[in-house]
Amino acid sequence: MSDDHVPDDHPRHDSLVTRHRIEDGVERGITSKQGLIAEGRGEAFDYLLGEETIPSADDAERVAAALLLRARHPVLSVNGNVAALVPDDIVDLAAATGADIEVNLFGRTEERMRAIADYLEEHGAEDVKGLTGDGRIPGLSHDRGTVDADGIGDADVVLVPLEDGDRAEALGEMGKTEIVVDLNPLSRSAQVAAVPIIDNIIRAVPNITRHARDLADADDAELAAVIEGFDREAALDAAEARIREGATRREDD
Ligand code: ATP
């Protein structure tokens, strides 16, 4: 049994774990009701992907690890769904890559920002950013464009899981290298990302960490080679093809 009391061999294991955590997140004031809807949308894509990390996503996760390790200032952006789903894994990834963690909400309220920062700190995060809010993402209205000047404002590589398309686009326009985790390869966030990872956040974040640990002793040339070999269009196409295959699976049976 996992910590969420879902049997490990249950055929819908990941989806049930995810639902439990999101429900709990809403109860704690971490996840918004909008977050529940986002979760439902993600689940449908995960169902079609076969609830597994497909090979192209694993490749993208290795590239993400190399980018985070090679960055001048990497930042992991955390919203209400991410905090509810993978608090420990985000802390581990930050430790493995030397990244900062910043709370970054679409619907920013001080109360929810604080609740998420506290929750991450309970899970071992140190110096969670986002509460200062003295930086801006140009081109977005005030609430949606608020970041920390010494966090996402200063970052060169940002991991933005489950991000809204507008903000993903605006961050890209600021010249940041964006790594997006999103189960929908057609979402605008995935489409604008330098590295789109089409995978469930609950599998993606620990897998990026595994790759980061594996690459910890790699020199700069090795990291550069991992990054240069990546083809974002091919990664999106592979995920789309898998989803199409998932949608027609019954006909083929
Ligand atoms: P966009 O504005 O980028 O086109 P959207 O309007 O669909 O996307 P939202 O509904 O704000 O964006 O965000 C939800 C996104 O997060 C969806 O694309 C969904 O597939 C994705 N998502 C939800 N849960 C997960 C999860 N556990 N792991 C990865 N992605 C997820």
Automatic annotation (TrEMBL):
One of its GO terms (molecular function) is ATP binding. InterPro entries: PPS/PS (IPR002855), PPS/PS_sf (IPR038138). Keywords: ATP-binding, Coenzyme A biosynthesis, Ligase, Nucleotide-binding. It is an enzyme of class 6 (ligase). This is 4-phosphopantoate--beta-alanine ligase. It catalyses: (R)-4-phosphopantoate + beta-alanine + ATP = (R)-4'-phosphopantothenate + AMP + diphosphate + H(+). It comes from the Archaea. Its EC number is 6.3.2.36. It comes from Halocalculus aciditolerans.
